[in-house]
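Ops channel
N.P.: pipeline sanity check, posting one input/output pair.
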């Protein structure tokens, strides 16, 4: 019964609540098709609901096709009640204001594929305590990606072989604690 209701809600939402013709919902999360030919989507800022904990999938199925989740749109989860999030290897950047004002967000896991964190991506994420970053090279951080007082309060977990790189990299060296990436199979 629960799966039936979820499918019905997704169908109704896709039919009546679209912001664009290329928007759709899977399990309550909004996606926007950015390339029909390459079958790529981004997480859109339009959701039916946002779970407390979310593992963004690397691909989603819609209309008989499989789409690669290529990234997050601007303000994808801004001001949501999200507490934990994990992004797939198919995502290369955390877009501008993606998590802006997520006051309850405590833990973020970013894949090795991340090469940039855009402006205001984690601005006003006042509860952020753990940032797990699998990238061996420190990603570029744009202006005010984090609040000025956020880095000292956040434990940054990075690959063991990259500890020195992060400890010496501009902006990353401001994080209060930089430790080897922990096993996240909790």
């Amino acid at each position: 019964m629960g799966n039936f209701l979820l499918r019905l809600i997704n169908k109704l939402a896709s039919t009546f609540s679209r912001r664009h013709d290329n928007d759709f919902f899977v399990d309550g999360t909004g996606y926007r098709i950015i390339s029909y030919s390459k079958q790529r989507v981004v997480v859109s800022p339009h959701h039916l609901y946002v779970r407390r904990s979310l593992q963004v999938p690397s691909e989603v199925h819609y209309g008989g096709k499989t789409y690669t989740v290529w990234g997050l749109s601007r303000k994808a989860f801004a001001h949501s009640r999200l507490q934990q999030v994990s992004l797939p290897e198919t995502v290369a950047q955390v877009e501008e204001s993606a998590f802006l004002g997520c006051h309850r967000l405590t833990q973020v896991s970013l894949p090795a594929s991340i090469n940039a964190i855009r402006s205001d991506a984690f601005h006003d994420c006042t509860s952020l305590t753990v940032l797990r970053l699998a990238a061996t090279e420190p990603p570029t951080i744009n202006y005010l990606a984090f609040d000025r007082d956020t880095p000292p309060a956040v434990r940054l977990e990075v690959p063991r072989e990259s500890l020195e790189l992060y400890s010496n990299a501009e902006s990353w060296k401001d994080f209060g604690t930089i430790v080897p990436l922990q096993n996240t199979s909790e």
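N.P.: looks fine end to end. The longest strand covers residues 65-72.
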